[in-house]
């Protein structure tokens, strides 16, 4: 077997409902600060959502913001912040050797709904339809907007992985580095989902949209009274490099991607299949050359739906139930479900644990569902440990796509 180059994460750029940098995001995760707020969307009415409040003008002109998309703006912000965090500048890089790989749940619905609404005000006179519509709605838009903004001439595309998209973007970036196609990869996921009526309407029709008198408590995975998800926007792009390149320039290394796996349920449009989730986790751990008990932290995908959380907990319990050292947490309890960004954002929130040994808890669990009880589940307060060396990040999506990424410290 050919030994593939080792790939590491050297930069993190993100915007989330409770933080627009890794430091702010991490501080709020440790402090139990939710980013979910009251929200209202046209044709739907009052609801709640995870809303990002990053400075859109920090890396983009007004013209590019008018012409582009919310997903593109999120991606541009994350890419710029990630490169800066990695201590890199496009001025010192070969733009043809930089790749952009962005995981998404869906793209284009926001712009299409907005355009139909606008022309409806003018009796569907299509002279009012924007000529920017097509480039706004093509599937590669968020990644493409990054290349336009940064002058990147290497490959770019989006990976349509439903709610596993963030993990898939990272996996794609790693593989392209290992193949030698690029020297730096900007990889992760983005979501603009809160700006489309259809997302909320569909989850509402499914009976899967969460509610609570307090917006910050709507997202409550594992709680017995959970009643559905919170739709959120956000993004996270990692700067990834081959280990030898990162070491050569003396880069700070957050962690090494040592294992991953993606598989399919082939069972249902929406309902998960624990057996395939189980297989996905085990395969990722095996590819890393580890045993389950050697995984220090598992970040769950759990979305706060009654059935989905139980199914996933069963799969996690089957893999890690006998491990006395594996801790388990959840990030959606703070920020809701950021769809295509979820895998990347949730991994980012746990990366600092590889350095400080602290595990952020799951919040909003007042009454733990017995069917969601897991050995090692961290609830309410951060857990200090003797060290976190391995993190398994789980991210699953509709049409039965499952993903798992395993990151290890360099210590």
Describe the overall structure.
- The protein is an alpha/beta fold.
- The protein has two domains: 8-248, Thiolase/Chalcone synthase (Peroxisomal Thiolase, Chain A, domain 1), CATH 3.40.47.10; 259-406, Thiolase/Chalcone synthase (Peroxisomal Thiolase, Chain A, domain 1), CATH 3.40.47.10.
- It has helices spanning 22-31, 62-67, 70-85, 109-120, 133-137, 141-150, 165-178, 197-206, 243-248, 274-287, 306-320, 332-335, 342-350, 353-356, and strands at residues 7-15, 36-41, 45-50, 98-104, 156-160, 184-191, 234-242, 255-264, 297-300, 327-330, 358-359, 383-384, 390-397, 401-408.
- The strands form three sheets. Strands 5-4-6-7-1-8-14-13-9-10 form a ten-stranded mixed beta sheet, with helices on both faces. A two-stranded antiparallel sheet has the order 2-3. Strands 11-12 form a two-stranded antiparallel sheet.
- It is globular.
- It starts with 6 loop residues before the first strand and ends with a strand.
- The model has no long low-confidence stretch (mean pLDDT 96).
């Amino acid at each position: 077997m050919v030994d593939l180059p080792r790939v590491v994460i050297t930069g993190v750029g993100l915007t989330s409902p409770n933080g627009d940098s890794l430091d702010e995001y991490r501080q709020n995760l440790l402090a139990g600060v939710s980013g979910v707020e009251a929200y209202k969307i046209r044709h739907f009415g009052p609801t709640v959502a995870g809303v990002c409040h990053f400075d859109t003008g920090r890396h983009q002109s007004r013209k590019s913001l008018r012409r582009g998309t919310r997903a593109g703006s999120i991606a541009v912000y994350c890419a710029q912040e990630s490169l800066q965090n990695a201590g890199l500048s496009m001025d010192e890089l070969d733009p043809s050797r930089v790749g952009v790989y962005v995981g998404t749940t869906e793209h284009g619905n926001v712009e299409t709904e907005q355009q139909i609404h606008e022309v409806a005000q003018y009796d569907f006179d299509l002279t009012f339809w924007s000529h920017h519509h097509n480039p706004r709605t093509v599937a590669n838009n968020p990644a493409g907007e990054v290349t336009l903004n940064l002058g990147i001439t290497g490959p770019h595309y989006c990976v349509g992985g439903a709610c596993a998209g963030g993990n898939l973007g990272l996996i794609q970036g790693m593989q392209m580095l290992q193949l030698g196609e690029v020297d730096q990869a900007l990889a992760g996921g983005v979501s603009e989902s809160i700006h489309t009526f259809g997302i909320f309407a569909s989850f509402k029709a499914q009976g899967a949209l969460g509610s609570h008198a307090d917006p910050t408590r709507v997202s409550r995975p594992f709680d017995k009274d959970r009643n559905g998800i919170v739709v959120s926007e956000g993004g996270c792009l990692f700067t990834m490099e081959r280990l030898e390149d990162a070491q050569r320039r003396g880069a700070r290394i957050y962690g090494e991607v040592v294992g991953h796996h993606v598989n399919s349920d082939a069972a249902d449009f929406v309902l998960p299949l624990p057996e395939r989730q189980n297989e996905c986790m085990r395969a990722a751990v095996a590819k890393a050359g580890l045993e389950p008990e050697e995984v220090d932290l598992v970040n769950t995908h759990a979305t706060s739906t009654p059935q989905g959380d139980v199914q996933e907990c069963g799969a996690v319990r089957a893999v890690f139930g006998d491990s006395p050292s594996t801790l388990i947490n959840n990030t959606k309890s703070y920020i809701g479900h950021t769809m295509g960004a979820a895998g990347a954002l949730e991994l980012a929130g746990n990366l600092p644990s590889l350095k400080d040994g602290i595990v952020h808890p799951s919040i909003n669990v007042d009454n733990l569902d017995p069917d969601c009880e897991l050995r090692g589940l961290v609830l309410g307060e951060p857990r200090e440990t003797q060290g976190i060396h391995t993190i398994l990040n789980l991210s699953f999506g509709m049409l039965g796509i499952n993903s798992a990424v395993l990151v290890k410290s360099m210590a």
